[in-house]
Amino acid sequence: VQLVESGGALVQAGGSLRLSCAASGFTFENYAIGWFRQAPGKEREFVAVISWSANRTYYRDSVKGRFTISRDEAKNVVYLQMSNIKPEDTAVYYCNVRLGVRDYWGQGTQVTVSS
To answer: What angle do CA 62, 1, 81 make, to 5 degrees?
Structure first.
């Protein structure tokens, strides 16, 4: 199982960014994929998740209306479109898949928001 995040960058507050998570090593279309983030000195927290069929999405309250999670089954990629980014969105962003009882994580991609 491999998850590879990309797309992180330094961005100004109010800007937009799209993160990507390329997945391999498992049957992508059968599993929900989530995005999490970890800011310096804080615990990793849930950001968004998309169901295996892409017909259900869930977000943490602070990103609702600003972030959109989507998936491309043909490319085995999950995206996190971030809009109206705020300084408090600064963190390393990770994608996640749970296979059975085991969680798999990517290496993360850094998002830094300047005010």
So the answer is: 30
